[in-house]
Amino acid sequence: MNEPAKKIATYDDLGSLPDTMVGEIIDGEVIASPRPSRSHGHTASILGGEIVPPYFAGRGGPGGWIIIGEPEIANTNQQEEPCRT
């Protein structure tokens, strides 16, 4: 027996998640996870404070790196949604 075609998730589907969740699209399916905790945010801030001076600004390190915490990545193969940065 034929099964109905599976709906492929789009960027708009991510916007319908509750504010307490973050999501990503993997193999056409929305995968939702709880938002990172305060502890995660604090640790990321401290780590950024250590990494940015040498690697981005060149103070005591090579400099020139572009460092983005938790970036949004878009699949450019999906033509219906432009990559938004």
Gyration radius over CA? 18 Å
Report the structural category: alpha+beta
Whole-Å distance between the termini? 43 Å
Total helix count? 2
Sheet with most strands: strand arrangement: 1-2
Number of strands: 2
Helix content: 25-40%
In words, what does this structure look like?
This protein has two domains: 1-35, no CATH class; 37-85, no CATH class. The longest helix is centred in the middle third of the chain and has 18 residues, at 38-55. With 85 residues, it is an alpha+beta fold. Helix content is 27%, strand content 14%. The protein has a two-stranded antiparallel ribbon. The chain starts with 10 loop residues before the first helix and ends in a 30-residue tail after the last helix. A hairpin with a 2-residue loop joins β1 (21-26) and β2 (29-34). It has helices spanning 11-15, 38-55, and strands at 21-26, 29-34.
Task: Provide key terms for this protein.
2 helices; 2 strands; two-stranded antiparallel ribbon; 2 domains; 85 residues; alpha+beta
Secondary-structure map with pairings?
Layout: H1 11-15, E1 21-26, E2 29-34, H2 38-55
Antiparallel strand pairs: 1-2
Brief synopsis:
With 85 residues, the chain is α+β, with helices and mostly antiparallel strands.
